[in-house]
Structure formats: structure tokens, C-alpha cells
Fold this protein.
Amino acid sequence: MDLKRLSWVILVLVSISLVCHPTSVTAGDIVHDDDSAPKKPGCANDFVLVKVQTWVNGIENEEYVGVGARFGTAIVSKEKKANQVKLTLSDPRDCCSMPKNKYARDVIMVDRGHCKFTVKANIAESANASAVLIINNQKELYKMVCEPDETDLDIHIPAVMLPQDAGASLEKMLMNSSSVSVQLYSPKRPLVDVAEVFLWLMAVGTILCASYWSAWSAREAAIEQDKLLKDAEDEIPNTKPINGTGVVDINTASAVLFVVVASCFLVMLYKLMSYWFVEILVILFCIGGVEGLQTCLVALLSRWFKRASESYIKVPFFGAISYLTLAVSPFCIAFAVVWASYRKVSFAWIGQDILGIALIITVLQIVHVPNLKVGTVLLGCAFMYDIFWVFVSKKLFHESVMIVVARGDKSGEDGIPMLLKIPRMFDPWGGYSIIGFGDILLPGLVIAFSLRYDWLANKSLRAGYFLWAMFAYGFGLLITYVALNLMDGHGQPALLYIVPFTLGTFLTLGKKRGDLKVLWSRGEPERPCPHVHLQHSHELTGEK
């Protein structure tokens, strides 16, 4: 296997190992329930993220994010209904005993420790505070719950926990400024964000483009094969079917092995996730993105620069390369380098999506599913893989391995690059809607196969399988987003919904139309041999 093909195998494995779900990267779950902290009267709030907007001397300043307590009054959801209230340091700092002076409906900031959360809230309310901000003694947030034997839960002010670094910043503001005020509110996410619509269109459009390119290449290869058979009638016994240039057909064993190796790769990503490891993934992604972007651009531009695409020059190490490829390559390399250098800026997602889509389209052009049997095994294994690493892995690792890897936890990075992402434009919490490459690549292999079959069988769009497979994929992805919103943003394995719809539709239609046997084993329709027609026509005309 040459270096170029090896790099493709590595990149595909990385992509398949990230068969992750649409979710939000930076915003997190806005509402979260916890069965380990059961509700009871006076202690029945959902755990919600809370925005804490600050003003220093009347000028808007930093915004912090905390988490609301199980007890106390609910946080208002609309910013316009949240009042700006003066922030005051508690005295004593832990608020475990009554303060020396009453507060004028101020929001007080207290330190965690020395007494229960509910005791702090009750004392703050008794001192006429309007809310209490409890500063954690760690950088992480902590869920404030009630003890099983607690009874004094008639608390009528909100309680919010902030991380340690936010508390340090607020204390610095209070020490250096004459007036600091805060505004507490917990905005709700919109039911549907436009980012999800665009991401759906992006996923469907990518498979659509890749399928037509794959089918067109397969048809061209079939036409070329027919021409060779007609031109070499005497050599027919030794003539072998011609596969598409550079195409790799996967078999059942490799389909199973693919998912096994992908699982190992995912565990390795989970265990080794760090800043330097993400940097390696970025380099691999750039290599694949450059190759994909170059392949797509050369295919598009070759229509207008046919002579340049058919003229070759020998380059050391890379072999024979067309002049068009040589001209396009610097642009592709520069594009990837610029994206890698500025990938943390707000608009870097555009470059990441361009490189990702080009990579996916090229992989779907190179890797083919030869029949429905291989496609069923591949999607079936991926279906179980997705469910295991999103849900079952929680039992073994105490957290969802897939979600942790997709978010890039412990790496200091905003997620890994093997994702298509779009910012949530109308979401007050921000973040991104994302979809893993595997959620497009794996179903895309089967959908591209359906269009190749339709074209070789000369089926119309409605009488074929591609239209219905495409519709099933789009509907399955739509159901994924519906489930995502119903679960308050909790990650959902997309293949849990996509595979049954896509594969089920394909198998049902094949059975109903009587094509299932051919689809399952051969993967292509019976085509009469050109030399048979040629020989028959010679006999009719009396030629020898």
C-alpha cells in the first residue's frame, strides 16, 4: 500500500471513529435533571445554567455562567425581566451566621464551605438579600442539592453557584470599584435553531454531490469496459471487469474490522486526549482536507482546462502529476495552513466545513460498497458501535466516551476537527451544532451504491432506489434533531435513527420489487455482454 493510500486509510479510520451525534459544543446542557439528587417539596428545581452579567460603575462588563440550585426560587428566563442589583461581599464570607448588617435587597457573594447550602440561603434571605452567589472552591461547577433530612426549605430567593475563577474576578471588581451590580437570568434555547437547518442541508447536500460523482464515474467505467470488450472480441475470455480508477471495494470482513479498529481508535483518543494529541489530529485533518479539496477542484476545473488535466509531469516522490493538479495544490495547501493557524477565530468553522466536505466527498468517491450485503453489515456494526460508545460506555467509563471525544474535553481545544459545525446563531448560549464525519460517510456509502445501481440498471429516479434512500437519510437525520431538542440538548447518536430509516427503506423496496437477491449479492444489474450482441449481429448479416 503506497503512502497516499495509507494516509487515506488512517484518515477514514479517524473519521469513522468519530461517528458522533449532533449536539452543541460550547454551550453545554441548559437544563439538566439528576436522578441521584431526587426532588422533594421546596427542593424541586431543575439544574439550569445561569448567566451572571456584571456592570462596573454603570458600564457593562464581564459575563459569567453558573448553575442554579435545587432549592430557592426559579431564575427568570428573559433578560428584560431580570433586574440589575448591587453585588456585595458577605460578612462573614461563608454566610454561616447572621451578618452584622442587613442588606438592601443586594445580591451577596459567599464562599462555599463550613455549613450547608440551604443554611447559607436561609441566612441570606433573613438578612434581606435578593439572591446569593455561592463561589465554589474548585474551577468546576457543583450541583447544590438538599440533604435527605433537611426540612427548612422554604427559601424565596435564588441561589447560584459560580466557579472559583469567576469568584476571584468578581472579588477583584468589588475591591477596585465603587459599584458593581449583577443581573441573573437563564435564557431558554430556541426550539429549532437555523444552524440545525443549515447543518441538515449540508449533510444531505454532501451525500447528494458525492453520490452523483460516484455514479457518474461508475457509468463512465462501465462504458469504457463495453468499448474495450467490443474492440477486443478475440480476447474476451481473458478480459476482466474494469473497476473505477483508484476505487477500493470493501468486503464484509473489512466492514466488521473497520468498526473494531475504529473502536480501538476511539478509546485511544479518549485516553490520550490532550492539547498535543489534538494538534496531531489537526495535522491529519489538514492532510486529508488538502487531498480532498485538490481532488474536488481538479475534477471541477478539468472541464474548462482539459488539456492541463491530461498533461502530466513527473515529480519526485509523488510520481506523475497533471499540470492542473500541480497548479491547484499550492492553493489547497495554503487554505489548510491558514485554517490551521487561525482555527480558533470565530469564523474558522467555514474553512473547517469546506475541508471536511471535500474530504467526505473524496472518500465516498474512492471507497465503494459493492453490494447491499456489505452495506448492511457495515451500517449494522456502526449502529451498535454508536449506541455502545454514546450510552453503554457510561457504565464502563462513568461518562460517554463519544461525547467526551467529540467535545475535545481535557484538550483545551474547542472540539476536534473531524466534524462539520455551524454556530448556533439565535441561541443565547451560543455554541455550535455539529455532526461527525461518520454520520455522513457510512450512510453515504450505501446511498452512493444505490445511485450507481440505478444508473447501471437504467432506472428512473422514482423507480430507482436512490431517491428513497436519500429521503430516508434526510428524515432519519431530522428525527435525530427532534430527539436532540426533546432531550434538552443531551447528545444523541445519529446512527440510532439514520440506520433503521435508510437501511430499512432500501431492504423493503428491494424485497418488494424483487431486486433484493441481485442487490444483496451481485450489487449490479445483469448486463448483456457486448460481444454476444456483436456475434449475433454478424450471424444475421452473414459476415464471417
